[in-house]
Prior knowledge:
Mean pLDDT: 83
Shape: globular
Radius of gyration: 16 Å
Number of strands: 0
Structural class: mainly alpha
Distance between the termini: 15 Å
Largest sheet: none
Helix content: 55-70%
Amino acid sequence: MKTNLISALAIAAFVAGCTPSEMKSATPSFGLGSNDKTVGATLMSAEQMVRSMAAVTKTEINTNLNNEYNARKALMTGSYAVNSVTSPMMISITNLASRFCEATINREAALPAGERRFFGQVDFSKPVANLSPAQYTDAVEKLGLSILGRRPTPDEMAILTEGRGDFENAIPAANKTQAAQTKLLLLFSCSGVLSSFDFITI
């Protein structure tokens, strides 16, 4: 079974507060690097995942994150075989990833733009419509470089961009001018990358 970016984004949308049914599940499935890694790939252990999430986001495993990990680790890996991946496993992994992403986003939002690792071009005081395609691409590329060791491919970037469109379309009209939606978009995108096949396998 091949865990792909569409699955991760659909779960990330749920975690971020969107409705998964509003994601376009008919979009072609492009795993982040999955075509290169499927053969011979094995899943990380739950402990490897949480430590790797902390390392790539530069986020300390505090009490809240440790509690989240302890609540979910039993479902995160039952076997190291790729074909053992289940929906509850992916939900647990994506939920944990979202907590690391949330901590990372909140930390960076409090920093001056020039001191941020991922979101230097993001204005967290503005609604998501003010985030230009170039600024969004910059954030996603920096996430990819840190989390996956590479920039997203054109196909992957297209999926993320389409996911952004679906995310914004799902925002209720009354909430579209809220600056908080910018954080939620980045939470959605970061969680999708941090729970992707290319990250959780070795």
